[in-house]
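Contributing: when you submit paired examples, paste them exactly as shown. First protein:
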Amino acid sequence: MSVEVIGIDHVFVAVSDMRRSEGFYDRVMPVLGFRKGMAP
C-alpha cells in the first residue's frame, strides 16, 4: 500500500525568543511553500 503526502497540518517549533523567531519564520516559511494560519 502506498501513501501520498499532500500537505502538513501543523508544525510546532520550540524557540527561545518568540518575537524574533516569528519574524524569521514569517519570512522563510512562504519561500518553502508554507502559510501561517491565524485561526484559533
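Second protein:
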Amino acid sequence: MFPQEQVPLTPSESAARFKYWQYRTIIATMAGYMLFYFLRKNFSLAMPGIESELGVTKTSLGLFLTLHGLVYGLSKFLNGYWSDRMNSRRYMAIGLALCVLVNVAFGFGPVFASLLSGTASGPAFMVALVGVFGVLWVLNGLFQGSGFPPCARLLTHWIPPGELATKMSVWNTSHSIGAGLIVILCGYIMAYGGPGAWRFCFWAPAMIAGAGMIFLLWALRDTPSSVGLPEIPGTEIKGARAGEPVDKQFLRERVFLNPLIWMIGCANFTINLVRFAVLDWGPTLLKESKGVTLDHAGWMVAAFEIAGIIGMLAAGWVTDRYMGGRAPRTCVFCMAGAALFMFLFWILPGTAPAWVLFATLLAAGFCIYGPQALTGVTAANISTKKLAGTSIGFTSLFSYASVIVSGVGMGALAQHFGWYYAYAVIIGVAVAGTLIFMLLWNAKANAYDEVDA
C-alpha cells in the first residue's frame, strides 16, 4: 500500500480551514486561561475564612498576595521567553496540572502545619501554618506564569495584526469570566459551607481545572504550519524561519532596549494595581468599608469582572475601528474613566442605595479592563509574533510588581489606618496610568514593516 499524495487545498478551502482553527484556538485558550484564574482568584474569597478560623492576620494574607504576585510576574517573564521556543499546547496543559496540585495541597495546609509543628494550635502551629501557606501560594504563582505566555504566542500566530486588538480583547474576557465565576462559586461556598468551607474554595476549582487540562491537550495546535496551513501573510520576519527563534540582537532591540516596551510596563503597573486591589481585597474591602455581606460582595466583584468583559470588547473594537490599531489612545480615555469612577465609589457612603454602589463599581470595571487587554496587544505588535510571549512576559514584571502595593501594602494600610487611604492610593495610581498612556499616544500600531531578525 503506497501513501496517497496529499491534494493541495484551494485558497477558499485554506481560508475556511484557517478560520476554523483560529476560532478553535481562541475558544480553547480562553477556556484554559479561565481555569488558571479559577486556581488563583479563589484565594480572595477564602481569606475571610482563613483569617477568622485560623487566626491568620490581614498583613500575612497581604504578604501571601504580594509574594504570589512577585513570583508570578517573574515566572510570567521566564515562561514567556521559553514559551516562544516550545510547543504551546503541552506547555499550557502541564502548567495547569501543576496549579491543580498546589491548590489541592493548600486545602490541606493546616494538616501539613500540624505535622511540621507537632501541634494543632499555639504559636508554633501558627508559624508553621503561615510558612506552609506562603510556600504553597508562592509555588502557585510560579506555576501560574505558564498560563498567559503560551496563549499570547498562539494568538499572534493565528490572528493577523489588524484584527488582534478586537479578537484578543474577546479572548481577554477569559480573565473576567474566570474571576467572575470563581468569586460567585466561592462566595456561596463561604456563605453557606459552614466551618472549614475555605478549603473547598481550593478543592472545587482544582477538580474543574483537572478536566480542563485534558481538554487543552485535545483542542490546541501550536501554529498554522503544524496543521498544514500557511503562516499569516505580512507577519514574516526577514532572516527568521517559521519554526525558529529570533537572534539575541533582535530580542534586545525589540524588547529589552525598546523604550515603548518599558513604558507599556510602567502602564501595566498602574492598571494592575487598581485591578488587583479590587479583585484581591474586594470582598474584604466591601464588607468593612461599605457594610456589604460576603455573598453580596462576591456578586459585586463578579459584576466588576462582567463589566470588564464589556469594556474589553468595546476597547478592542474602538481601537481597530477608530484608532487605527493604536491601543494607547483608547487606554487614555479608559484610565481616566477608571480614576473617576473609583473616586465616586470612594466618596459614596455605606448607606448609599445598593444600586448606586453597584453601578459605580461596574463603571470602574468597564474602564480598567480595556487597558488591561490592550497593553498585551500593543506589546505583541511592537515586538512581533516571534517575541509576543517574551514582550508580554517582560511587561508583566511591572504588572505584578504592583502587588507590593496592592497586596501587603493594602493589607497593612487597611489594618493600621483603615480603607480611606487605600482608596486614595488606588485613585492616584489610576491618574498616573492616564498620564503614561498620553505619552504613548503617537506609538505605531505594529512594527512588522520595520524589523528583520
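If you have annotations for the second protein, write them as plain sentences, like these:
DSSP finds 17 helices and no strands in the chain.
The chain has one domain: 15-224+243-439.
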